Amino acid sequence: MKLATVRIDGTRCTIHVDGIDDPAGTGDSPQAGSVTGRIVDRRDLGALLTANPTGIRGAVESGLRRDGDEVTVPLTDLLPVITSPSKIFCVGLNYREHIEEMGHPIPDHPTLFVKYPSALTSPYAEVTVPAGMTDKADYEGELAVIIGSRLAGARGGASEEEARAAIGGYAVFNDFSQRDWQYRTQQWLQGKNLDRSSAFGPWMTLADDYDPVAEGASLRTWVNGELRQDHSTADLVFPPVDLVRYISNFATLEPGDVIVTGTPEGVGAGSGRFLADGDVVRIEVDGLGAVESTVRM
């Protein structure tokens, strides 16, 4: 089951995705593509998760019976799959090859930083980088975990069973970065939170339908059609269940919260090949779809 947040007549709605026409590789822009589906709820997916923290599948099936209107919307009308999560935890240094290319030791604990909802953007939106932040703009293709049910924190950490049950689904994420700003200090926040820069979507695939880590799904990133990243998500140093367990030691995870699990080798910072005006970054995870951003400077 795939659930997306879309804009229909100015209103955010959750749809059950039935199909996608994505023009990747044809030379066409995202405006040429579309998504078809059925309306589940006249609210975004984050609100639907919050309202149904123990049974999203049942809520979707009920919504399809009640509404179920068929719609076709342009790819550019897709919104971030969760538009306003209360928390976004990002993980740095979580694939061994990427850790090595960045010159760091393998960590004993997850390296966490926070991204704010204002940094999220639609899965097929243009990303505008302001003057003064363009020198080392970079991409990071990542697997995102979306929390589906509340998991109380600060109680010694969740069990593996509790953590697995709290994961609602998975999506694709671009942890768009400005490396010169990121490394101004030992804290990375200022290089990771550019407004409307991190493509997130195109939908959430329910965790009980598909586990990309267990399946060894490949994560791939292209820049202008050139493959830059290609790695199995099964090689995460800290997989999703471990991250949920770790974070639950100190923070309560709410429905719609997001954990972005880190990027493999092949980022621009590893080769010195940073993004330029007009570059097109496409990130895909097997079974989860793709996001695509055109960079404007």
TrEMBL record:
Pfam families: FAA_hydrolase. The keyword Metal-binding applies. Keywords: Hydrolase, Metal-binding. GO terms for biological process: small molecule metabolic process. InterPro entries: FAH, Fumarylacetoacetase-like_C, Fumarylacetoacetase_C_sf. One of its GO terms (molecular function) is hydrolase activity. Residues 87-296 form the Fumarylacetoacetase-like C-terminal domain. Gene3D superfamilies: Fumarylacetoacetase-like, C-terminal domain. Belongs to the FAH family. This is Fumarylacetoacetate hydrolase family protein. It comes from Corynebacterium kalidii.
